[in-house]
Amino acid sequence: MDDPVSLSALQHFVFCPRQCALIHVEGVWADNSQTARGHQTHERAHGGGTEVRDGVRTLRALPLVSRQHGLAGVADVVELLPDGSPRPVEYKSGKAKPRLADEVQLCAQALCLEEMFGADIPEGFIYHVASRGRREVAFTLELRGAVLDARDGVRALLRGGVLPAPAADDRCRLCSLYDECEPFAPRDFPAGYDPFSTRMDGGS
Amino acid sequence: MRTLLNTLYVQTQGSYLRLENDNVRVDVEGARVAMLPLHHLDGVVVFGNVLISPYLIQRLGREHKPVTWLTESGRFTARTETPMSGNVLLRVAQHAASGDPARTLAVARYIAAGKLQNQKAALLRSARDAAEADQPILREAARDVNGQIGCLPLAGTVDEVRGIEGTAARAYFGAFSHTLRVNRDFFWLGERTRRPARDPINAVLNYAYTLLAGDCAGACQQVGLDPQVGFLHALRPGRASLALDLMEELRAVIADRAVITLINRSQLTPRDFILHAGGSVTISEDGRRTLIKHLQERKQETVKHSLTGRDTPLGLIAHVQARLLAQHLRGDRPHYPPYLHR
Questions:
Q1: What are the DUF83 domain coordinates in residue numbering (chain A) (predicted)?
Q2: What is the nearest CA distance from A145 to chain B, expressed in angstroms?
Q3: Of the candidates A182, A188, A198, which has its C-beta nearest B150's C-beta?
Q4: What dotted CATH number matches B88-330?
Q5: Cα distance from A192 to chain B (closest Cα, Å)?
Q6: How much is the mean pLDDT over chain B?
């Protein structure tokens, strides 16, 4: 059986397959101001232990696994409703990302929780730290399918295929791996770059 | 964003390094001589009898900051392997390429081209600063190196590439002492001699190359390449062939330039060398310290990278090149682009 796919890899994959391959296959990591804020956000979400308020128990940094779907990771926050049914809450420091990356990550948490708690989970929440807003995400069949597609995509990457091509679009501005990826740099030699040049003026 | 951090070099014999909060504390004879925040360091290099506490070794390992042990005279003995060392898929691709004569030849030719371009540029640059009598000799050598660049595309085997490189090296080092403006009766260079060096220039060049090779091996390790599997350098047990390959493009730019500058500024003088009976020469501890300090400062200087066009600290070029080579080996780039210094 394949190793479980990590929930963070799913999120990276949906955002950009190349970013996912750089981090999880090539072992590249780089921090920028956004990832640094993300670490702080998660540290805050993971601190504090368990608390009960209005009959809702809040679990933090809960290890998750789904044998059925081959997923594993850690949930920032899981709320247990008075009837014991879990709802995942993912903390995000930034704004909502394009391409449902955070929604897929959240839904993957729900798939794990459904298996671990034997419950049906119709929805979860994404909490945006900056706006202090919580938005509901419904776990539709379509979103559940997207989780499994992303899982298969991550597995294909880990099996060692070629690095996917750069996205080279709006996403790249948000990406901490811009320097390692070089999405807009030419893949082949650009004009004026000639290692075999025999010019004698110091240029090449 | 990878930033250039400092490498901590410790060559005072008997010093002790340990972790104190998030700092490296350096003690000599029981007294604190330095306190360096860990997040300013990208690695630690120690020479000879220097102790490091297990907690510090482990912390550096967890943060993927290698510890390198050299002998007191600067020969490599060991480097820590960290959890991020080595990407197995990249290594498999590297080994496959190294077993494919056509791919090996292509990479070797580009590495040699980078080396020769940078030797040519260094000679032309020295010619601009040289005394009038030396200028024609340096230009002539640059033309000879350039002639060998013209031969590279025709080379059909890696052995031919090595031959071309050797011919260029003879022209380059034949003119090397003409780049010097002071102490020329003392600083002379016969042929390249390694162990032992037979003249002061070889002694200091060998030392500079050892430090640079360590940086290049570290760069291979950081991007997950196997430092021992090279393309231009023959595979030989115990030799970091790929680190030596990566170093080729940087020898003239970093090491040779440092030696020329330090001698011309009289920061390295005959007093920094020990002439042994029998004709071998070594560089003194003070001389080594001068060289290390200069190289550390030089690594902070930014250059515009010839391929990416980005301002990059000179000390990160080895890392960038290792990354570009990894991209080529994993099929992300059709060719390996060598670093061409302007």
A1: 8-181
A2: 29
A3: A198
A4: 1.20.120.920
A5: 9
A6: 88
Mean pLDDT throughout A168-182? 82
CA distance linking residue A95 with residue A131, whole number of Å: 8
Give B1's pLDDT tier (boundaries 50, 70, 90). very low
Are residues B149 and A198, on separate chains, in Cβ contact within 8 Å? Answer: yes
Q: How many CB atoms lie within 10 A of CB A62?
A: 19
The pLDDT tens digits for B244-296 are 999 999 999 999 999 999 999 989 988 988 888 777 888 888 899 899 989 98
Domain boundaries, chain B: 6-79, 88-330
B186 contacts B132 by C-beta, under 8 angstroms = no
Mean pLDDT computed over every residue of chain A: 83
Q: Summarize pLDDT for A136-148 with one digit per residue, the tens.
A: 999 999 999 999 9
Which residue in A31, A163, A198 is closest to B332 by CB distance? A163
Q: What is the pLDDT of residues B151-210, one digit of tens each?
A: 999 999 999 999 999 999 999 999 999 999 887 888 877 777 777 888 888 899 999 999
B/e letters for A123-132, b = 16+ CB within 10 Å, e = fewer, are ebbbbbbeee
Distance CA B185, CA B269 (A): 11
Topology annotation, domain B6-79: Ribosomal Protein L15; Chain: K; domain 2 (3.100.10)
Confidence check: pLDDT of B86 > 70: no
Given the candidates 3.30.230.10, 3.90.320.10, 3.40.50.150, 1.10.10.10, the CATH classification of the domain at A49-160 is: 3.90.320.10
Judge whether B332 is closer than 8 Å to chain A, CB to CB: yes
The residue extents of the domains of chain A are 49-160
Q: What does the alpha-carbon distance between residue A46 and residue A165 come to, in Å, rounded to a whole number?
A: 35
Q: pTM for the full model?
A: 0.77
CB of B90 within 8 Å of a chain A CB? The answer is yes
* Cα of B303 to nearest chain A Cα, Å: 15
Asked if residues B26 and B37 have their Cβ atoms less than 8 Å apart, the reply is no
Contacts of B125 in chain A (CB under 8 A): 202
B338: closest CA among B153, B111, B156, B118?
A: B111
Q: Compute the distance between CA of residue B214 and CA of residue B21 in angstroms, rounded to an integer.
A: 28
CB distance A193–B306 less than 8 Å?
A: yes
Q: ipTM value of the model?
A: 0.80
